[in-house]
Design goal:
The structure is a homodimer.
Chain A lengths: L2 E11 L7 E10 L2 E7 L9 E6 L4 E4 L1 E6 L15 H16 L2 H17 L2 E8 L2 H11 L2 E8 L13 H12 L6 E7 L7 H14 L3 E5 L3 H11 L3 H8 L6 E5 L5 H10 L2 E4 L1 H6 L7 H6 L3 E4 L12 H16 L7 H7 L2 H6 L17 E4 L12 H8 L5 E6 L2 E5 L2 E2 L4 H14 L1
Parallel strand pairs in A: 1-4, 1-5, 6-7, 7-8, 8-9, 9-10, 10-11, 11-12, 12-13
Antiparallel strand pairs in A: 1-2, 2-3, 5-14, 14-15, 15-16, 16-17
Helix pairs in contact in A: 2-3, 2-15, 4-5, 11-12, 11-14, 12-14
Chain lengths: 435, 435
């Protein structure tokens, strides 16, 4: 059999259910799928492949899954730092978005974000923003896999001057992107329980159910939100959303910081998933999501970077390091959130949170070929006693050498092959001079 | 005037007392010192220089100062993770050190650590370990600036089978390294108040005072230590050390996690400095140092990575990100530990903590030329609205392009010029196979 791509001479971290790690591994890709994953016997010949990639003793693993982004916001990276979330959002981000977010800027910001993510090992992201149709075309052009939702908010927003049109736009996006690309899965994204009315949330949920798509929502992010929902609805944010019928197995609850025990139980019993964004929650001082308790209750928790303006990067390698270390020190327990648990959150659990774990998130025969190769021949990555803890605690995004999505080689020796990076950077710099 | 090195076409972050940022900057180095720092007028010719470095629109800034390392421990990076500090130290690190730490392994581990640090922008470190003489030769060979202390501990240690010799060895190290190299400043390093007796601590302090060198000590790192010192000495660790006379302006208190208000006041009044190591404290779940309170009290606080086995890297760029975000979320105050405060900790305040702020830590005429150039033409570093927050929140260690220490170019286009990296990596890998 002739394969499209053969990767060899590396340690394969499969992230399959037995967490197999294969030394001197060879991984073969055929028609976009994983066709062979095994250890190469001594002196055995390499399988035939149109493209042969020598991992040079590095690590071969599943591409990372970023469960929460706002892709075009890379345009505002570093525009307003060290500010309270309400000031940051109301006095900086919302005004900047209303002034500068256009189809063309959305396209450029999305391309920039896709390149940043691919170069740091992320092969799938889950996004919600405005002009999401333009986000989708840019993601597809970059060659990434994504779940994308047109943003729903009860204010005038970029591209939707009349909020009465927000649901209609979001529904049209789902219809349009159902069958355009194998990489793009449409979704719906309601901004939050405090920026969408109960009627809007209900309508959006009905569409999500009718179309069987993921329902993304920022929920229980800040203390302000918690207090506001308590005041307005005499309920916790999670309980309020549950009463509307939103907390179920198609819901992705983003942040989920301000939870009581009952909320954790509700999320677990309903089978909803959580996107944990520690760097954003820390930088904006939103609070600390009770992730160890969520995991103990059996909730599927993926990792997310959040938008670039609140992080200020889209690097899941760094996000893993933060997730592992934050919860250890809060509980004064260094055994919590061990490296394997965190790597699962960034791969197979993230895929499960998005409903994509049957096709991605681990290296298993028959799954889609979303694969990354890490170059470990660097001073900060030797020696290697434990490749998993290496990825979580020692690696940087820039250690990712090659990236394959859906069987297509997108990054080769740290060069992005699908996007004109120089041109994109020029356009972003030109954009920033107008802000 | 002809300069040795001229760096131009970048934004200079001076970190001087007015925090000047110079657009289109030119920085000139002569005989190891900073000789000119200014904005290049339009059409003005570049100053003459033997070596001209084009920063290509990037950032030119002072080299970073890592106030706490155990350089040879890079040999044990990832050997034992997700464990309590006492288990990690007593069951893994101390046994590994006693078995594998030799003059030759110390040399190799130190070279590896120096390359990792230089490639991530650190130009000065403060270290304490065993066989420190071999550490010093390797640091000097790599061309880094360092404050180095031979470790003092009341147990048999690598190179000092009889602890009765520990002070004598440490004193001999100070004598020997007083005048060998302009890069190396000797110091003394007592492991901790629970591994050194009162008599040992007193003798070490007497030597530090007589020789006018920095006294480094791990202090108030864990709750276990706090409880133990309370039980044995009816005192907090800081108060106990103060009673011995150790807390003064020549003391560098490493970690300083378990402090009460009185301890903070003692540190401030005595003029001692603190080395804050957030990633190590988080990974080992030691606790959270009250850094905002220390800063408010006027204490000089520098940043440190700690040894590689407890981090698992020596990357101060990442350490800044952790320091900024950790304290914000703990206090639920995003304005705390803003980017400038944190960058000061990694540069001029770190230099001050080590007593080197008259010669390094900022870019000012007459200071030693310890300079780094950051390549910002990367997808995760555009656009640039605020170069300081960019370094703290968006950059990676691998964005450092060029590194100069004491006027010598050590890293050029990410290639280390002073160490045979391939050979060092080979030796480290060979070492790791014996562990």
């Amino acid at each position: 059999m002739n394969y499209n791509i053969v990767i060899h001479n590396g340690t394969i971290i499969t992230m399959n259910s037995s967490l197999d790690i294969i030394e001197n591994g060879v991984l073969c890709i055929k028609n976009g799928n994983l066709a062979k994953i095994e250890s190469l016997e001594n002196d055995a010949p390499l399988p035939d492949g149109e493209t042969i990639i020598d991992a040079q003793g590095g690590i071969i693993m599943p591409g990372l899954v970023n469960t929460h982004t706002h892709l075009p916001m890379s345009l505002f990276r570093g525009l307003a730092d060290d500010l309270p979330l309400s000031v940051w959002l109301n006095e900086h981000m919302f005004p900047a978005e209303s002034k500068y977010i256009t189809p063309e800027s959305v396209r450029i910001g999305t391309l920039l974000s896709c390149v940043e993510m691919l170069l740091s090992g992320t092969t799938t992201c889950c996004d919600g923003y405005f002009y999401e149709d333009h986000v989708a075309w840019a993601v597809n052009e970059a060659g990434m896999r994504a779940i994308l939702g047109q943003g729903v908010i009860d204010f005038p927003a970029p591209g939707i001057p009349d909020p009465a049109d927000n649901i209609k736009n979001a529904a049209a996006f789902i219809q349009k992107w159902r069958n355009i690309s194998p990489l793009i899965t449409p979704s719906i994204f309601c901004h939050s329980p405090y920026t969408c009315s109960k009627a809007t949330l209900k309508k959006a949920k009905d569409i999500a159910d009718a179309e069987a798509v993921l329902f993304q929502i920022h929920a229980a992010e800040t203390k302000d939100e918690y207090v506001r929902i308590q005041t307005e609805h005499q309920s916790t944010p999670i309980n309020y959303l549950d009463e509307i019928g939103i907390i179920d197995k198609n819901a992705l609850l983003v942040h989920a910081v301000w939870l009581d025990d009952n909320d954790i139980n509700t999320i677990a019993v309903r089978g909803a998933s959580v996107s944990h964004n520690p760097e954003s929650n820390m930088k904006l001082a939103s609070g600390i999501a009770p992730v160890p308790a969520l995991l103990k209750a059996g909730v599927t928790v993926g990792l997310g970077t959040d938008g670039c303006a609140s992080n200020n990067n889209l690097d899941l390698i760094s996000e893993m390091d933060f997730a592992a270390k934050l919860h250890k020190v809060i509980a004064l327990d260094p055994t919590l959130m061990d490296a394997v648990t965190v790597l699962k959150m960034a791969t197979i659990q993230g895929a499960k949170a998005l409903g994509l774990d049957d096709i991605i998130g681990s290296l298993e025969i028959g799954k889609k070929a979303d694969v990354i190769v890490i170059d470990t021949r660097k001073p900060h990555l030797v020696p290697v006693y434990n490749p998993v803890s290496h990825i979580v605690y020692a690696a940087q995004g820039s250690d990712i050498r090659d990236v394959i999505v859906n069987g297509q080689l997108l990054v080769k020796d740290r060069k992005i092959l699908t996007v004109d990076l120089e041109n994109t950077i020029e356009k972003v710099i030109r954009f920033s001079k107008t802000v």
